[in-house]
Amino acid sequence: MRICVNAMALRAAGGRSVGLNFLRACAEGAASHHTIDALVPSGAGYEALASENLRIHPVPPWLNRIWFRPYADKIWIPAKVRELEADVLFSMGNIATPFDGPQLVLFHLPYAIYPDRHSWGKIGWKDRLILNLMIANVSHTIGGASKVAVQTETAKRRLMQQFGLPSQQLEVIPNAISLPSEAGVEGQCGSEFDYLRLTEGRTLLCLSRYYTHKNLEVFLPLARLIREQRLSIRILLTLGAEEMPACRQLLNQLAAEQLDEIVVNIGPVNMQRVPALYRAVDGMILPTLLESFSGTYIEAMYYGVPVLTSDRDFARDVCADNASYFDPVDPQSILATIEQLFSDSERLERCRTGGRARVASMPSWPQVAECYISQLEKLHEAG
């Protein structure tokens, strides 16, 4: 079977991770009986994955610009798929491409299924316009897919509600993330980040880049409360000041109010240093407003670090009872949840052990890739 994988839009952040891990697993054996042609963004690290059964086709960068995407999705990609003589098409970027054969679409655009005002409230007009164009494209095309893969039951339910897709058109294939082979952090000695730990008190990690939906601005009123109540709580951010103007504004405001010793930005941390970072903290906090699937939850649970996060369906779908939940737009709720968790030693231990057990039950990337390949095989057999 000849499979064409359209991963051209997966060039950054979580999307890029999904694309790279899926294709790597295919190259290493998950699709050994098939030939795969992958359309990928140039310069995003995909070229190194080429193998005997996996051919990499970098897409011209200009096709990923928002104003050229209609041409790319409706004309350029279909022509390329025909040229490659694909039997089936796996579209990994939310949008179904015009194709005469069977097509599997991977949906992971949370803004399309979270239209509430809190999720959209902080988005600038330009990003709002781009997102609305993307959602309109998804709405117009997704019904034409033979099958739509989602990463959680929550996403499946919301897609059915938002776009009227029938249950039988949707398939839940859990996500996976790449984790090191070492055990969790508990019991290991020392960390290069120990200097960040409070001698008395709690140090919490927010391991995230800056995106408006991550809701990091809520740390400003939270830090004011911490200072007013003279609490020994420190929150670590991992932001690059150059990420976007709003990120710089947040960091400048923290400094201007002298809150940057409560909310401390340590800058970006590469994956090799993440285990040491988790060894230096007491918990992971993420006040996000929407996600399709956050690997940060899995990382924290894997390392035995308690999770504090938003009381939202996407978070509960991933973490279940192994996290402490708060209202992400209410700093009082966030502070109360922090204090309640760390005053309950039994609850802390349940979060640690339950989180590890939950991660252990999740599939690996080779298993996830095999699920996608199996779906494509079924679609091909069905014609």
UniProtKB/TrEMBL annotation:
MF terms (GO), sorted A to Z: glycosyltransferase activity
Domain spans labelled Glycosyltransferase subfamily 4-like N-terminal: 27-178
InterPro entries: Glyco_trans_1, Glyco_trans_4-like_N
Keywords: Transferase
Domain Glycosyl transferase family: 199-357
GO biological process: lipopolysaccharide biosynthetic process
Protein name per UniProt: Glycosyltransferase
